[in-house]
Amino acid sequence: MFIWTSGRSSTSYRHDEKRHIFPNIRCLTYIPNGISKLQSVVWTEEAQCSLLNASITETFNCSFSCGPDCWKISQYPCLQVYVNLTSSGQKLLLYHTEETMKINSECSYIPKCGKNYEESMSVVNVVMENFRKYQRFSCFYDPEGTQKNVILTKLYSSNVLFHSLFWPTCMMIGGVAIVAMVKLTQYLSLLCERIQRINR
């Protein structure tokens, strides 16, 4: 429990205290987001990958928005791309980005979900043909060997992670400092009242 909430319910705060407290409680939601991004910053080393196989294996269900509070079910084809990591000679599954693996770990590329399956298939076919056309390309791998796969495009770098954690942390520290000053002002005000009563 935070020190500024102990002993009182949320309804007993004055308006000026609420204004400082609740934005900073919401600010704490950046922690899970930062941890998620931190887990994604493992594919740090760039290397060369050569294509071994690119094929559409199966279809998966997905949902797309058809308006406010409206969702419909569709499908998308799953493209799997296996590559040879030239620095180690390993056969690894390639993912488009870090997020691709989180959405579906069986697919290398996931098209945007839409009502027209043929359009999704057309997009995936173009991607597959591009892989077959460009047999060698840059990729990123985990030098620690924790992730047994590689990615084509990095969404999260150490710089992105720094900014996603640094600025919310500054906001939270600033908010805590403001609340602490409010509490200190209240304490000094009460102390002055007591001193005045004693002097009378």
Automatic annotation (TrEMBL):
GO terms, biological process: detection of calcium ion
Instruction: Provide GO CC annotations from the record.
Output: voltage-gated potassium channel complex
A Gene Ontology molecular-function term?
Answer: calcium-activated potassium channel activity
Question: KCNMB2 ball/chain domain: which residues?
Answer: 1-26
- The membrane spanning regions, by residue number, are 165-190
Q: What is its main location?
A: membrane
Q: Where in the cell is it found?
A: Membrane
Please verify whether the record's keywords include Repeat: no
Question: In terms of domain of life, where is this protein from?
Answer: Eukaryota
Query: What membrane topology was assigned to this protein in its record?
Result: Multi-pass membrane protein
Which keywords, in A-to-Z order, does the entry hold? Glycoprotein, Ion channel, Ion transport, Membrane, Transmembrane, Transmembrane helix, Transport
InterPro entries registered for this protein in UniProt? K_chnl_Ca-activ_BK_bsu, KCNMB2_ball/chain_dom_sf, KCNMB2_ball_chain_dom
Show the PANTHER family listed in the entry: CALCIUM-ACTIVATED POTASSIUM CHANNEL SUBUNIT BETA, CALCIUM-ACTIVATED POTASSIUM CHANNEL SUBUNIT BETA-2
What's the name of the protein?
A: KCNMB2 ball/chain domain-containing protein
- The organism named in the record is Pavo cristatus (Indian peafowl)
